[in-house]
Design goal:
The complex is a heterodimer of chains A (304) and B (443). With 304 residues, chain A is mainly alpha-helical. Chain A is built from 12 helices and 2 strands; from the N terminus they run αββααααααααααα. In chain A, helix 7 packs across helix 9. In chain B, the strands form 2 sheets. In chain B, strands 1, 2, 3, 4, 9, 10 and 11 form a 7-stranded mixed β-sheet that branches. Chain B has a 4-stranded mixed β-sheet with strand order 6-7-5-8, with helices on both faces. Classes of the chains: A mainly alpha (304), B alpha/beta (443).
């Protein structure tokens, strides 16, 4: 009897496991379809296009890695990478510094603090294209309000976005105005979550406010700062709307970042193959930077 | 019994001979019916401009006339170009009718055969209204809308010529005559230029891409005239091209407002309408805002003239737009009725008298009554007619025209910053030549 019952008892759980596994697949199927349709297919198709010479409205020819080779000799592309990095560096550092300072200020208790915080985050709620159009009018060298303000206080007028040497810092100014509140909100959230015990201990030990900030607040805030840094870096790297509306990459090509270069190649010159190769390279740059930041975050967590 | 006279016999014979033609015409007239497609719906995709605004505002007329419902949209020109290219490539465009800039997209839609040939529809008396009067369209713009293989895949809507806008008050104050040549224009602008008072002798397009047409305007005044030679090779670094570049550089660098390097037509318009610039060369469509006293400080003070002549010729840059019917559309009949209505004499006259530009038909220019009662001065209308007479395409008919404008435009922008014209044009020509050659080989 035992000979006959043992295999049956062993077979039942095994059969059940197989049935459950089949059912589980159905649960992830919708998600799988979405991932396939929105991530895997576009990516595969972009890779496919990047190895073709493909003009919109014309035929396509397989060219292997020729589009990637062309990137290495295309001075305009290389300059667009440098401009992107320059723009990103400025558009990360200034909002980060100003956002942290604003968060420290808004963390203090003072009358009408809620109203002041609301006013401060208003720029973040504005549509980027609308913001860009308004700033464009303000930057007009003869008729813009900014030069009127400068000359009113005895300062010389600036050419803002109408000069190759000032265009990127000016575009960063718009970015700073628009996105500093986001950094402030993230850091303010961090400040609100900090424990009070270390501050009380530091006070008893006679620490100055600067020492408390330097040795308690800053280390505890670092995870939040890194999150803000990652968000700002990715946002700045993919900045397009503001630059396109205000300068379209000009004067000349002096504000042509990778996104503008890519957009022009894809939708103005209809070089879909070459533009796809730019996308692939740009994606790799973003992934590398994001990994670098995540590695830094992990390293910091391990250190504390 | 009636006696058959020689006169009666002749009259009867003539009637018999003429009968087939008359019957055919009568049949044709009787078979054309504006309401033939009533109950249908068509989608019209236009670009944002005053002419599209006129069509959209008045489309109820078409709907009442035909019983066809129209869904219209007007989107900015650059976005429209990208959109229609993508939608046409997909094979299933969402529109039946598309507005096209001939100077940018004519070759693209022609080679891909995205739009239907309109000639069979024009010839079909059952589809074309007896009063359509195709010969009324200007010969020049019809040729401009016709592809090299003879297909006419857009019905011309409007021609745009470069004209000279000038501030009468500023010119009179310094006793400067309206320039007849580019040399006179530079000389006049120099006398009028007063940066201390923020008054400048000239304003013009400096923004990359947009600026190329101002340079080609100067190039049209040289013996070379065009940017391609007869073999369709690029000739944008020749002595004539450099001479045109020097005129551009002088006017833009020395005699225009600071920051002009980033100016497109809208910044130029703002500067001119605030009375900050004495002269401005651009398209014909700016009369309405310039003469609007609620927006413009120069309303009533604007003079209009044909662009000055160069040392080697006198031409005005010409550009044009047209409406085409998508080849993939299943509603070509209703769409053709829309095109006939959109480009009828009433709408074309509306274009002219509203200051929206030069219509493709010639009859509005002969409408003395409408012109006399217009709010625009007579010199505006005479300038349009005179410019049409000396017009010549302002951009080369090539497929990568946007890339051409970007590449040459960057060089021109650099010259405003002080770079050497010959060096910049040589560099840009060397950069664009392989692109053009590849494009020509592919076609």
């Amino acid at each position: 009897m035992s000979v006959t019952t043992a295999p049956v008892a062993a077979a039942v759980p095994g059969t059940r496991r197989r049935n459950y596994a089949r059912r589980y697949w159905w649960f992830i199927a919708p998600c799988g379809v979405v991932v396939l349709a929105t991530i895997l297919f576009p990516w595969s198709f972009t890779l496919y296009m990047s190895v073709h010479e493909w003009k919109l409205g014309g035929g396509r020819t397989f060219v292997g890695l020729a589009n990637y080779e062309r990137l290495f000799t295309d001075e305009r592309f290389q300059l667009s990478i440098l401009r992107t990095l320059y723009y990103t560096a400025l558009a990360v550092v200034f909002p980060m510094v100003l956002g942290i300072l604003a968060a420290l200020a808004f963390n203090q208790k003072f009358p009408l603090r809620g109203l002041a915080r609301t006013i401060f985050i208003l720029p973040m709620m504005a549509t980027p294209v609308a913001v860009a159009l308004v700033w464009t009018m303000m930057f007009h060298p003869q008729l813009g309000v900014l030069n009127w303000l400068l000359t009113s206080v005895g300062l010389p007028p600036s050419l803002w976005v109408y000069d190759a040497s000032t265009v990127i810092p000016t575009l960063v100014l718009v970015e700073v105005w628009h996105w500093t509140p986001l950094v402030m909100l993230i850091i303010l959230g961090g400040l609100a979550s900090l424990p009070q015990d270390p501050y009380e201990a530091a006070k008893i030990d006679g620490a100055t406010p600067w020492q408390a900030f330097r040795h308690i607040t800053l280390p505890l805030l670092t995870p939040f700062i890194i999150v803000a840094l990652i968000i700002r870096t990715i946002d700045s790297l993919k900045a397009f709307d503001t630059i396109y509306v205000i300068t379209q990459g000009g004067p000349g090509t002096s504000s042509e970042t990778i996104n503008i270069f890519l957009y022009l190649n894809a939708f103005a010159y209809y070089n879909m193959g070459y533009a796809s190769a730019v996308v692939v390279v740009f994606f790799l740059i973003i992934v590398a930077l994001a990994m670098l930041l995540l590695w830094a975050r992990q390293r910091f967590k391990d250190a504390i | 019994m009636t006696e058959i006279s020689r006169r009666l016999l002749l009259a009867s014979s003539t009637a018999v001979l003429a009968a087939p033609a008359l019957v055919e015409q009568a049949n044709a007239q009787s078979t054309f019916d504006w309401r033939r497609f009533r109950g249908e719906r068509i989608e019209v995709s236009l670009t944002s401009n005053p002419r599209s605004q006129i069509l959209i505002q008045n489309q109820r007329e078409f709907q009442e006339l035909t019983g066809i419902t129209v869904g219209s949209e007007a989107i900015p020109e650059q976005q429209s170009r990208q959109r229609f290219a993508i939608e046409f490539t997909s094979g299933r465009p969402s529109f039946d009718i598309i507005g096209v800039s001939l100077h940018v997209s004519k070759l693209q839609i022609g080679r891909a055969k995205w739009c239907a040939d309109l000639r069979p529809m024009i010839a079909d008396a059952s589809l074309t209204a007896p009063d359509f009067d195709f010969p009324d369209f200007g010969r020049g713009i019809v040729d401009y809308a016709t592809q090299a293989d003879g297909r006419m895949d857009t019905l011309p809507e409007f021609s745009d010529y470069f004209i000279l806008y000038y501030n009468k008050e500023l010119l009179a104050a310094k006793n400067v005559a309206v320039p007849k040549t580019f040399d006179e224009m530079i000389e006049g602008a120099r006398r009028l230029n007063d940066p201390q008072r923020q008054i400048y002798g000239h304003v013009g397009r400096g923004l990359r891409n947009a600026n190329v047409v101002l340079w080609t305007q100067f190039l049209l005044g040289t013996p070379q005239k065009d940017t391609l030679n007869a073999q369709r090779q690029l000739i944008t670094d020749t002595p004539d091209a450099v001479a045109a570049g020097r005129i551009y550089q002088t006017l833009m660098r020395d005699l225009s407002p600071p920051g002009v390097v980033g100016f497109n037509w809208n910044e130029c318009q703002t500067t001119f309408m605030q009375g900050r610039a004495a002269m401005w060369i651009d398209g014909v469509g700016f009369a309405a805002p310039l003469e609007d006293p609620t927006r413009s400080r120069v309303a009533g003070k604007v003079g209009y003239a044909v662009v000055p002549a160069g040392p080697g010729g006198h031409h005005a840059c010409m550009f044009g737009t047209g409406l085409g019917i998508a080849e993939a559309s299943r509603k070509k009949g209703p769409a053709w009725l829309y095109l006939q209505w959109a480009m009828n004499k009433t709408n074309q006259l509306r274009f002219l008298t509203s200051g929206a530009g030069a219509p493709a038909r010639t009859s509005p220019f002969r409408n003395e009554e409408a012109i006399s009662s217009s709010r625009f001065a007579r010199d505006y209308f005479t300038t349009l007619v005179d410019s049409a007479a000396i017009s010549r395409p302002g951009l080369p008919e090539i497929l990568p025209v946007t890339e051409f404008r970007d590449t040459i435009g960057t060089a021109l922008t650099n010259t405003i910053g002080g770079a050497d014209v010959a060096t910049e044009l040589k560099r840009a020509t060397d950069a664009f030549r392989p692109v053009l050659e590849a494009s020509e080989r592919a076609s």
